[in-house]
Write the structure tokens for this entry.
Amino acid sequence: MSNLRDQGAEFWAKWDRPRRVTFVIASIAVAASLPFAGNFSITNILNTPISSYQDVLVYPVGMFVLMALGLNIVVGKSGMLDLGYVAFFAIGAYSMAILGTHTHLNMWEIFPIGIALAMFAGVLLGIPTLRLRGDYLAIVTMGFGEIVRITALNTQKIGGPNGIANIPSPPSLFGLKFNISHPNSFFWVVLVLILLTIWMIRRLSIRRPGRAWEAIRQDEDAAELMGVPTLKYKIWSFVLGAGVGGAAGVVYASKAIFISPDAFTFNISVLILSCVVFGGIGNIWGVVLGGVFLAYLPERIRFISNARQLVFGIVLVLVMNFRPDGILPRKKREKALLTKDDLGGKND
């Protein structure tokens, strides 16, 4: 897998700009055509036992990939362990549900509000907690995720345990209809959000925030000694990741039409973190691959009922034993590990 990735990187480096642009456009076109893959008899194997293939592409596959990319900013780029990421997903979803059912605003108008509220929650959580590190930060973020869920569960004004129903679907846009009968439209919205998130991460990674995140991830104390305002850039990563989670929540609520606190449990945070670790911490394409695999596999094997969790767990254990740094680990991380192995072999 690593050799294949390295060969791809070599080909990419040799290509001129027109070839790269053509390849990117072709890749986006292939991704946009994925909803139609389940319509052919040769690809019937893609259909899942309960939900339609097109619905699964939106949630969980598309949503997991989008949220994994957002969490990767926090975990992969900055090296902070966040176990409460589902809170921002819930904030975006409840923003859509509450405003959509109590005002005349549609999803496109609520969308920036949901993102802003999720980012504001990221600031509120980040300022007092991001001075913590490691396990302490993980425990605090996990607690924040549970606080948001339990607050929604016990607040009758927003439905309590019964949730919120009759969430309005988005109005038509560019001739696309958004309702239960047209899941493809939601997938294309999620795909656009994924592409924008990837673009944002790649642009920031080569600029000052990206260099600061890399320094913080490697050694926060050394970064501070070198003059990097670590708290400022940690809050940056937290807020940006929260915004991506909030965007996913808004789309999810408008697609699902009904939400309840049960949809935002701690298990979702663990699954999203698993997508990041399984795919390769810090590697955008690894995270995308991990999100697709871990979101689609449980849905595909749902026909074996409760045993699917056992099968899913066994697959994770086997893959992580053979690829402990993820399917597509970061280049810098992989080279560092290889160097350590070589030095260990020489010492032996």
Q: What stands out?
A: Confidence is low (pLDDT under 50) at residues 336-343. Residues 3 and 284 are 17 Å apart (CA to CA). The two ends are 28 Å apart (CA to CA). Residues 52-265 form one domain.
